[in-house]
Amino acid sequence: MEAKEAKLEKMRHSASHVMAEAVQYLFPGAKFGIGPAIEDGFYYDFELPRPLVPDDLITIESKMREIIAADLPFAAEEIDRTKARKLFGEQPYKLELIDDLPDETVSIYRQGSFVDLCRGPHVNSTSEIKAFKLTSIAGAYWRGDEKCPMLQRIYGVAFDTEAELEDYLARLTEATKRDHRKLGKELDLFSLHEEAGPGLVHWHPKGALMRQIIEDFWRQEHRKRGYDIVFTPHISKVGLWKISGHWDFYRDSMYSPMDIDDVEYVIKPMNCIGHILMYKTQLRSYRNLPLRYAELGTVYRYERSGVLHGLARVRGFTQDDAHIFCRPDQLEAEVTEVVQLARFMMNTFGFSEYELLLSTRPEKYAGTIQVWEDATEALRKVLEHLELNYEVDPGEGVFYGPKIDVKLKDALGRLWQGPTIQVDFNLPQRFDVNYIGEDGLEHQVVMVHRTVLGSMERFMACLIEHYAGVFPVWLSPIQVTIIPIADRHLDYANKVAGGLRECDIRVQVDDRSERMNLKIREAQLEKTPYMLVVGDKEMDTSQVSLRLRSGEDLGTLSISQFMDRVKPIIANKIQDKL
RNA sequence: GCCAGCGUAGCUCAGUGGUAGAGCAGCGGUUUCGUAAACCGCCGGUCGUGAGUUCGACUCUCACCGCUGGCUCCA
């Protein structure tokens, strides 16, 4: 398996060189950046005399096919730096790379008319590059640095066989179909408005209903686990954010203050401050800890225009936030509980696979190295005791403490930012958040910020794409649509609906004077789990005819039979389609 | 924010330097029907916004707004 991956990577990397050769041929004077293999394919960055247009991809691709057909060998060579500097004299980016290399000699690879500074390895010959396709053009900063010039990047994908390439392209098509922006419109779940401002979500009745179902479930599970659910204001005086350090560290992401009675107020970008103020309304004993304040708190953050994306990246969103105030000796147990809760939530929502990341101390940090190490160790212990696989993400912690991030894997294997658990040493110190210990002295609490869904908006996006809009019954905004065949069946349909409503089943009657076929089609497009067709036959026998959104026609059954079937599916939050 | 592309009716999309078209949706009728679209008619757009070029701009130019794909960012 690993050997196969290594071979693929070699081939993809070689494909990027072939692409560079094609570009060199088609755009004399092109300057070359870097061209690595990436997941599924490769890219190469160029500085070109003119901007690329989509049609260029076709031209470049056919030139690449020529190079591949020519069966050109890849040849490695070691040369000394001086020689290399001369060889790449016209290539400023390559010169920069050479200057950064530590050794006296550098390796280069040649194929055909193209030579590149490259560590390798490569395939033996261009003919070993199999199924590939150029996919897109993008701008990319040299060295990934905003201050550096922007180069033009061409992305491609490459696989061993045409079948695998087809498969990949089919996955892309499937992803397009599941796009939450498209489904959100089709299923009438939410909208965004240019007039209202970008990144500001309007939840339509059905989307709002789903959100309420999720939130109700969330509240219930949090109460069970000893969380206190609270509310805090959306605005507060800017002074608090100066104390917290956000005004210095985080100001770029906060909206400008507004003036109220000559005092500056800001919209909250986080919920923690309010929770701290509440904590501090009393003198806390070590016996009272841990204290867990949870809030579905709506926050507003400035996100740069280019990063906004449907519900997944917005400017106003509701975090399923909580702050745990505990003693240092409780940290491990608390984090364990949070990880368990997160796993329970993820499983309930049908995510069985996830990746865990432990992020450690970044360059800019608050607190001492000692507390960082203790807390990082506590997080590590939690993951190890729970026997979870995780990776360390060095230096990726937040300035105020280390964190555990959970990335959810959706039905297409794509990763989504899910739960996050962050230890905080900064705020307890800045706000003097203390408790009285057994020794009668004041001690600083340890604070844990955590979300288990992330934000309602992003989680909704994730759910939509994971389920492709075919939500499990317990989450479906409409669970049952009753379809009277003719108008004379309306009364009976309403009666059936009434019975189901009594049992808290979300039901609608399609009472339009339309044909049954149309009603079925529309219920189908809405992905309603159950369609109950009622006509003369059903009315006479007090039955319903059940059709599933899978298209399956289960024939007639009594209403109680239907209830017996549906109730446990809802109550147990069954994942299966039906 | 940066690079590139895009913006035509509620939605999906066609169109061209000579003042806009389809399907669906909506509305009005007719139809009362057995498991994914009945039929007829009507309504609907200052072609994202603003400026410029032109006898004339939806079409060309520029600016702005928004969206899409990337890059950077995501405490």
Fraction of residues in helix: 25-40%
Helices, by number, come to 18
Structural class: alpha+beta
With strands numbered from the N-terminus, the spatial order across the biggest sheet is 11-15-16-23-20-19-17-18
Instruction: Please give the alpha-carbon distance between the first and last residues.
Output: 36 Å
Major sheet characteristics: 8 strands, mixed
CATH homologous superfamily annotation of the largest domain: Bira Bifunctional Protein, Domain 2
Average predicted confidence as pLDDT:
92
**Morphology call:** globular
Instruction: Specify the CATH class of the largest domain.
Output: Alpha Beta
TL;DR?
By secondary structure, the chain is an alpha+beta fold.
Description:
With 578 residues, this protein is an alpha+beta fold. 37% of the residues lie in helices and 28% in strands. Helix 6 crosses helix 14. The longest helix has 25 residues. The radius of gyration is 29 Å and the shape is globular. The model has no long low-confidence stretch (mean pLDDT 92). It binds one RNA strand of 75 nucleotides through strand 7, strand 8, helix 6 and helix 16.
Task: Fill in the keyword field for this structure.
BirA Bifunctional Protein, domain 2, Rossmann fold, 18 helices, RNA-binding, Threonyl-tRNA Synthetase, Chain A, domain 2, alpha+beta, 578 residues, five-stranded antiparallel β-sheet
Question: How is this fold's topology laid out?
Answer:
Layout: H1 2-26, E1 31-32, E2 37-38, E3 41-47, H2 54-69, E4 75-80, H3 81-87, H4 92-100, E5 105-111, E6 114-117, E7 131-141, E8 150-159, H5 162-178, H6 180-186, E9 190-193, E10 197-203, H7 205-224, E11 228-229, E12 235-237, H8 238-244, H9 246-249, E13 258-260, E14 263-267, H10 272-279, E15 291-300, E16 316-326, H11 331-348, E17 354-359, H12 369-385, E18 391-393, E19 403-409, E20 415-424, H13 426-430, E21 434-436, E22 442-444, E23 446-455, H14 456-467, E24 480-484, H15 490-502, E25 507-509, H16 516-525, E26 530-534, H17 536-541, E27 543-548, E28 553-558, H18 559-571
Parallel strand pairs: 11-15, 17-18, 24-25, 24-26
Antiparallel strand pairs: 1-3, 2-3, 3-8, 4-5, 5-6, 7-8, 9-10, 12-14, 13-14, 15-16, 16-23, 17-19, 19-20, 20-23, 21-22, 26-27, 27-28
The structure holds one RNA strand of 75 nucleotides.
